[in-house]
Amino acid sequence: MSTAGRSVTENTATTAAQGAVATDTTAGATPRELRERLLDDAERAIGGLLDRETERWRAEAPQSLALFDGIRDLVTAGGKRLRPAFCVSGFLAAGGDPAEPVLPGLAAALELMHVSALLHDDIFDEADLRRGRPTSHLVQAERHRAAGWRGSSQRFGESVAILAGDLAAVYADQALRDARGPVLDEWSLLRSEMMVGQFMDLSIAAEYNPDPELSRRVALYKSGRYSIHRPLNIGALFAGREDLAEPFEVYGRALGEAFQLRDDLIDAFGEDSVTGKTAGLDFAQHKMTLLLGLAMQSDERVRELVRRGEGGVDRSDVAELRRLIVDAGIRDQVEKHIDELVLTAVAALDTADVSEAWRSELTVMAHRVAYRDS
Fold it and tell me: pLDDT of 305-364, one tens digit each?
């Protein structure tokens, strides 16, 4: 789909959503405005939790404040808040009461779980930047070096970031403590799928297995279900709407794959200043993304370049790898597949028993997720 075509589709969906406001939202707010208000509540819930815990441990173990710095730095650095947004949208689209007091904690839990994953992921990827700032493990390693402490600065930095990630996961569970049974079951699935997907990502990179179908499965577990499908369904389940599980799964699976493919393209062709993280890391770490798997299958030059040396692709080879992927038509192929996935996701909404306003808003969200540039 061309950029112009996407804009027309998104504008049409936005207009339809605004046109249905009177019957679908409270006090004249659009679905998006209502969601943003609730996300602000979730943001305050995270801030309040971190403030309380920081003050507690400031008195009991002041050395531990480095853990809270790692969590807070990521939270305050921004980010898309994708998972809380889909959770709140699933709840509201299912007819949930916007005044539900537990909802902000539910959304906060999803963001804290994401922060946990990012802290760990940056160590796995040996990343230098996250959301435009030095990654937590590098900040802590520099702190160790500057203080002249004993032992390995790198090991210290990575250990602190791992513990901060674990602590963020603990607080995610704490934020979710008032949720009901079906929501907790879905939460457990989200967490286990994310961890298995992360392992599969590491494993197929180590095995050098350029199997596109395996890469799709990794994208589904590591990102698709965790980023969109499960958060959306958690929101619907919290509203008591188990009947939305099937259409939301089709929507979430398709859009989740589109999200991960866009992430692959952004990593391959994006700019650090726009994305807030180091471009080309998937290539440097020889991660078998769908983009790279397709390219390796179709072009011997790509296979040779990726297999050059045990450490993966040298940074100096990234530009050449980008050129080969474009020349082989793989970038266009992935863009076309993203278009198809978006159509699948949007079509699934036709079978969902939700208002026209929320059907339109979820369509808009699908386009924002699939065609973003960071």
Answer: 777 755 555 666 778 888 888 988 989 999 999 999 999 999 999 999 999 999 999 999
List CB contacts of 192: < 8 A, sequence separation 6 or more.
none
Q: Please give, one letter per residue, the 3-state secondary structure of the chain.
A: CCHHHHHHHHHHHHHHHHHCHHHHCCCCCCHHHHHHHHHHHHHHHHHHHHHHHHHHHHHHCHHHHHHHHHHHHHHHCCCCCHHHHHHHHHHHHCCCCCCCCCHHHHHHHHHHHHHHHHHHHHHHCCCCEECCEECHHHHHHHHHHHHCCCCCHHHHHHHHHHHHHHHHHHHHHHHCCCCCHHHHHHHHHHHHHHHHHHHHHHHHHHHCCCCHHHHHHHHHHHHHHHHHHHHHHHHHHHCCCHHHHHHHHHHHHHHHHHHHHHHHHHHHHCCHHHHCCCCCHHHHCCCCCHHHHHHHHHCHHHHHHHCCCCCCCCHHHHHHHHHHHHHCCHHHHHHHHHHHHHHHHHHHHHHCCCCHHHHHHHHHHHHHHHCCCC
| Spatial distance between the Cα atoms of 320 and 135, rounded to a whole number of angstroms | 27
Torsion of the alpha carbons at 118, 119, 121 and 122, rounded to the nearest 10? 110
Dist. CA 308–CA 125, nearest whole Å: 19
pLDDT at 313: 59
pTM as predicted: 0.88
**Over the stretch 118-173, which tens digit does the pLDDT of each residue have?**
999 999 988 898 888 899 999 999 999 999 999 999 999 999 999 999 999 999 99
- Is residue 192 exposed (0-12), middle (13-18) or buried (19+ Cβ within 10 Å)? exposed
Q: What is the pLDDT of residues 253-291, one digit of tens each?
A: 999 999 988 988 998 887 766 666 666 677 766 678 888
The whole-chain average pLDDT of the chain stands at: 87
For position 26, what pLDDT does the model report? 56
183 touches 239 (CB < 8 A): no
